[in-house]
Amino acid sequence: MTTDNNIDDLVYVGVYPANPAIILAKLHAADRKSIDRYIEQLTAVVLQHDANNRPIYMLCDFRHGNVAATPYLRTKMDEYVKTVPNLPGRSAILLGGGIASRAFKLIAEQFTRFRVQDNHETKFFTDVTKAVEWLDNHD
Q1: Under a CB-based contact definition with an 8 Å cutoff, are residues 19 and 54 in contact?
Q2: Residue 32: how many CA atoms within 13 Å on its side-chain side?
Q3: Which residue, among 122, 137, 18, 37, has the nearest Cα to 26 in the 3D structure?
Q4: CATH for 7-136, options being 1.20.1420.30, 3.30.200.20, 3.30.750.24, 3.40.190.10
């Protein structure tokens, strides 16, 4: 169960500390409170980028904790897709190496196929260094 005291350790959407041009979107719990906070923060950041007419380079970190492609997460992601605009840029999805991560990747790949954009690339990684390098090399 997520409490107000530990939700900030499980959910974060903001600037990636090593590179302020990259947005870090971290979700490390699959309970409703964490998912709601994640979607709320993610939506706010994406809408801010859209208002400033800037491409977005996002590092989505799902490597730790108990993140699974639950029906609730899928529903909230569907709502998110309908709310935010398609922005140019890149998204690097970080996953762990376990069986749960592989199952999550299958669902995430399906999700990204429904949101095909000519101006936004999505790629999956297990190594944060490689993911950041790929985001940095966007020209």
Answers
A1: no
A2: 3
A3: 37
A4: 3.30.750.24
Antiparallel, parallel or unpaired: β 56-61 and 19-27:
parallel
Name residue 123's beta-bridge partners.
Answer: 92
Q: How far apart are CA 27 and CA 71, in angstroms?
A: 16
Q: What is the pLDDT of residues 24-47, one digit of tens each?
A: 999 888 889 998 999 999 999 888
pLDDT greater than 60 at residue 5: no
Say whether pTM exceeds 0.85: no
Q: What is the mean pLDDT of residues 77-101?
A: 79
The CA distance from 96 to 61, in Å, is 9
